[in-house]
Each structure stands twice: as structure tokens, then as C-alpha cells.
Predict the 3D structure of the following.
Amino acid sequence: MRGSVLPIENNLEETILNFIKEAFDKKCIEAVILPKRIPSGDSFAYLLIKDKSILEGASPFPPVIPVQGAKAISSLTRQGSVKKKILAIMHPCEIRATIELFKLKQTTLNNLIFMSYDCPGVLPLSDYLENPDENDQTFLAAQQKWDSKDMRPVCKICTEFSAPASDLHIGQLGTDEGKIFLIPNSSVGKEFLNAFGLNSDVPLDEWEAEVEKLKKERENNKKDAQEKLKTKVEGPENLLETLSSCITCHNCMRVCPVCYCRQCYFDSDAFKFPPDNFISKSEKKGSIRLPSDTLIFHLGRMSHMIHSCVSCGTCEDACPMDIPIAQIFNLVADKTQQVLDYKPGRNIEEPLPTVTYQEEELQEFEKPYSETYIKVEETNV
Amino acid sequence: MNDEYTPRIVGFLCNWCSYTGADLAGVSRLKVPPSLRIIRVMCSGRIDPLFVLKAFLKGIDGVMMMGCHPGECHYQKGNYNARRRFILLQKILEAFDLEPERLGIWWVSASEATKYAKVTTEFAKEIEKIGPSPVANEIFL
Ligand code: SF4
Ligand code: SF4
Ligand code: SF4
Ligand code: FES
């Protein structure tokens, strides 16, 4: 891969904000979408900025993800495409979710230009809120050292932290002190760099090598973390123990970028039953929980969207009961996405795995599970 | 509590092939397991994964998904979609070690009464071997 080199002036944030201001001046863009600290100082919000003076003090690399960027994009385009060129800077997982929303026909991407960056992870939202000042320092240090120890559990095991299918990518790994790479990922990205008169033919071997290295590390973290998690969710007893503190607030669904339904099935009338239904169930078991939809909600939600889950962790950040819900979804997403050979947000052209099929595929699963299982195990060896 | 265990199996059968095949098995007086309750759907593509999950969480011991052979779906691609949804479900169950062997998919055409009798009998035996569903008596679902 090839890209451009950009010197860092003072710090990374300022460099990128200046780059954006220049993009306004060069008429490459007419607006930008990026996070800025809210007035109270303890969180961040996405802003659509037309007046470039408001860029002052914006945070292209925020320490938390309070609202998933894909939600910001889909709110903008709910009634149609944008007519003016707009640049959006987001974490890779937010861009991947945006691509899934596009495939789900929940957003249009005309005239939107996406800028991503090598992502060191973000802090858990509730931790951050406890002491924003101190946590800003923690984040800064972690960001510089690529140390994920304080980052969210899903960030520690994220292997898709680099160039998603964005237009321009900021490479921070493998660069010399005081420099970043700007990597064009599409023709739009190339035009951008051309407008800046940047030579986009610099080889990026070191960046690629560092990305690979970190990927391996994260891959290993993931294996370990998933093994640990399995002991908490395998088997009905463990799974129930982990999930039964759920208060069915459905926050996890509401903040999830790919749970796009205007009305969720689990909030709908189709999911309400007459009293006799509950009474007869409680007669059979002796008792039932009320409301009685904890497990069906989580498993059902999975069955609807797990193939598009980008493991962004927004659901876990929003859970008031500290349920490791994003880690649980990640575990299942890995399995389902692997067998369907699908990675959400990998490629905008790739159809959703539930709407496409091959005539000859997956036949090994049409046998009774016991036989399939043995066969698959053998081929894995 | 009843000590004797009679498994409860639900079969989602597509109207055009599998259900007709089941019908033919009946007319031909082939022996099919009494534990199987049939729910007719127009096409295997209509089997929402939620139907299956709901059945399991209600304490059903086994679920069979059945449709026309690939290439013979009366709506062209319903069974191809069903196959992918089935795998999705199987992987969800597998991830939580929720006994994925309690779920299966079969292609049975309108004339395959013998195949229908065979696979349902085999599956019922398998389910009997696995034993009653562990979620049947769970209260905190
Ligand atoms: S759980 Fe299912 S129905 Fe509810 S919002 Fe998500 S995808 Fe839609
Ligand atoms: S389920 Fe959670 S981790 Fe997955 S996409 Fe939705 S919010 Fe992100
Ligand atoms: S946010 Fe947490 S408590 Fe609320 S429904 Fe989701 S898992 Fe349950
Ligand atoms: S009509 Fe039988 S599977 Fe579609």
C-alpha cells in the first residue's frame, strides 16, 4: 500500500483539525462531522459543523464513544442523501456499522467522505464519567503507548482497529516520530490528497507491518478473553447467571447501530401475550419471571443482527447492570460471521449474508449435528 | 412432576413439499413418532429464527426445520435462506453450549414419505437419548 506523509504540528489533534480547515478552504468539503466536548465537560457529542471556527477545540479522537457514529450518520440521512460534500471522522467500528446500515438501506452515503484512523480503543463510558479530567490523562497516555489495559474489554480484543472501508485513513502505527500517514482508500480519498498536493506514493511497509503485529497481539488477547468468557456463558445455568441481572431496559438494543428497526419486535404488540398464557406457563413450571423475556430478547436480537454486529461495545457502555453484553455478542458474532464468511463493514459491495446464498454451500450442516460436528472438527485439524 | 419422559418435538414444515410428504406418510400408514408436533409454514424461508428460539425457551426438546430440496423451493430461494438462518441459529446455540443437536434441517419432497418417516423417527430417537430440555424448568428465563 501507498500513501502520503503528514508532519505533526504540535499534536495530532491540532494537525488533523488544521487539515480539515484547509479542506474547507480548498473547497474539498463544505461541512464536517466530528465529536466535540459538551459544555459540561464530561462527555462528547457528534456535531455537523459548517462554521469552521467551531472546529476550535473539537475532538477528532475522543476518549469515549457516547453515541455510535453510525447513528449520527443515519439521523442525518434518514430523509435522503446529503447534497454537499461532508467529511466524517469516526472510529473504525463506527464506519463499519455505517456500512452495515447502508446495506440495510437505513442510510445513504452520497457525498459523505469517511476518515478513519488506527484506533487505540476508548475508555468505558461509566469509568470516564467518574473523573473526566483524570481519565483524559489516562487516555492520552494509553493512546501514545498503544496500551489497551484501561480501554474497554471489546477494544482490548478488537482486531479491526485499522483501515476499514473508509476514504482516507490516518496511519499512526509504524511512523517516525512527528509524522502520520494519510492513506487513500478510494478514488475520493486520492482526489483529496491530490487537492492538498500531497505525494501519495510513499510506501507504507512499516505501517502495514505494525498493523499486522498489533492485530496478532489483539488476536491473542481475544482468544484468552473468549476462553474466560465461555466459562461464564456456556450452558444454560451459566448463561442465565450472567444474564439474569438484566433489567430488560433494552438500552443495549436502542443504542446498537445495527439494530435499526423503527419498532423493535420485542417492544411491539406481537410480543405481548394474554394473561392466561402467563398463568398456564407458571402452572407448568411452578413459577415464571415477570416480565418473562430476558433470554428470548437477547437470543432473539442476536438471531436478527449478529452477522452485522461490529463489536463496537456501545451496548455494553449503555448497560446499567454491567452485563458484558458486547463481549457476549462478540463471541457469537465471531462464530456466525466465520461460518458465513462475512465481516461486517469489510466491503460495501458485499451483500448481507442473510440475503445472499450459494446453491451449493454449507451442505455439511444438513446432517444431524452429531455427524456434522465430527466432520467439521476433523477438517479443522 | 412426571417421571416418565416423553420428548416434545416441533417440526416446521413447508407447505409445498415437506408437509405434503408428511401427509403422504400418513396416508401410506408409515410409522412416525407421536412426539412430533407439526407446524405448517408456507415455505421454509418463513421460519423466523425466533420461532425456533421461542420453542426452545418454552421447553421444547427438539426442533426440525423442513423444506423442499435446494433448487425446488416453490418461491425459488426460500430454502437457501432457511439454510443460512438455520446455521446462524446453530452457531448461537453452539456458542452458549445450549445443545445445538436439538435442532436440525432436512429437505423432504412431496413424494418422500419414506424419507420423512425415517428422519423424524431417527431424530425422535436422538432427542430421547439426549433427554429432557434443561430450560424446561428454568424460572429466571
Ligand atoms: S432486536 Fe430485532 S427487531 Fe429489535 S431492533 Fe434489533 S433487529 Fe430489530
Ligand atoms: S450488539 Fe453491541 S457491539 Fe454489536 S453492533 Fe450492536 S452495540 Fe455494537
Ligand atoms: S442494557 Fe443491560 S440491563 Fe438493559 S436490556 Fe440490555 S443487557 Fe439488559
Ligand atoms: S416452498 Fe418448500 S422450501 Fe420454499
In short: Helices of chain B lie at 18-27, 49-57, 78-95, 113-130.
